[in-house]
Write a structure and sequence with these properties.
Elements (H helix, E strand, L loop, with lengths): L1 E2 L5 H10 L37 E3 L4 E2 L6 E2 L4 E7 L4 E5 L5 E5 L5 H10 L8 H6 L3 E3 L6 E2 L2 H4 L4 E7 L6 H9 L7 E7 L7 H11 L5 E3 L1 H12 L7 E5 L5 E6 L3 H12 L1
Parallel strand pairs: 10-11, 11-12
Antiparallel strand pairs: 1-7, 2-5, 3-4, 5-6, 6-7, 8-9, 8-12, 10-13, 13-14
């Protein structure tokens, strides 16, 4: 399934840090360490061993994304978004889009085993590494980005995708604020339909009015992250509960009482 991005900004930033390109890896590798005593990672068990998911994966054979005309060559690298339960591997290829690739077309398992044995270093859980310094600290004045360490440490992350200009947004925000910190869950807000630098203060004020003091994505980056994480721009507020590595634990539209109850149960469960 094709999932394209409007720009390569999101992946290019991460690729600079992690060596994502058609060339050789840079910072993602480290000197060999003692082999892990954990079981060898295979295609059958890589989904459940998410702590070993690498940040970057490469194609092992040429691959043409559905609906595309540009053939991606073997060894072309992208950012791992997540592994799906059915074996599909979500990869963000930057300017070539976000796609679900068959696992046997990637070196995911080989890289996961390198993480397992210590020959490939993980700097942080994959979702934490991806959002990195792109989230705004709502308590700072002037507003500043969080550091990687400040956003790390949650048991799960509740990603909320909504338009802060919507008339009913304050009601939704107040309801979501009640879930913050439940069972170690940390919320991250991705504002929709805002792209200008000037929108930064607007988002902060809107959240502050609702007493939802949550980390939020810089508006100019939010669309790219939304497309990468969801594969689309949602028409209605959407909730995505994920592990620190990016595995989906719950996903649904929010905004109605019933759906909020479902979300609350997912967060509390």
């Amino acid at each position: 399934m094709q999932r394209s991005l409007p720009s390569a900004l999101l992946s290019s930033l991460l690729c600079v840090a992690l060596g994502c390109s058609a060339g050789t890896d840079q910072t993602d590798a480290s000197p060999a360490a003692a082999a892990s005593t954990h079981a060898v990672i295979t295609q059958a068990n890589v989904y459940e061993n998410e702590r070993y998911w690498p940040a970057i994966v490469a194609l092992t054979k040429e691959w043409l994304a559905p609906g595309e005309t540009k053939l991606l060559k073997a060894q072309y690298r992208g950012t791992l978004v997540r592994v799906e339960a059915d074996g599909r591997v979500g990869i963000d290829f930057g300017r070539h889009g976000r796609h679900d690739v068959p696992m046997d077309h990637t070196d995911l398992v080989a890289r996961a085993n390198e993480v397992r044995t210590g020959t490939r270093t993980k700097l942080a859980p994959n979702f934490v590494l991806r959002v990195g310094n792109s989230l705004v600290d709502p308590s700072s004045r002037p507003l500043r980005p969080y550091s990687l360490d400040e956003i790390a440490g949650a048991s799960r992350y509740l990603c909320i995708f909504a338009d802060p200009r919507a008339e009913d947004f304050p009601i939704l925000a107040r309801q979501l604020a009640a879930l913050e910190g439940e069972n170690g869950v940390r919320a991250v807000f991705f504002p929709q339909s805002l792209v200008r630098d000037e929108d930064l203060e607007f988002v902060h004020e809107r959240l502050d009015e609702s007493s939802w003091h949550v980390a939020f994505m810089y508006p100019r980056l939010s669309e790219s992250y939304t497309l990468s994480l969801l594969g689309e721009i949602p028409e209605h507020p959407r909730a995505l509960l994920i592990s620190p590595e990016g595995r989906i634990l719950y996903e649904a539209e929010v905004g109605t009482a019933g759906r909020l109850d479902e979300l609350r149960q997912a967060v509390e469960g």
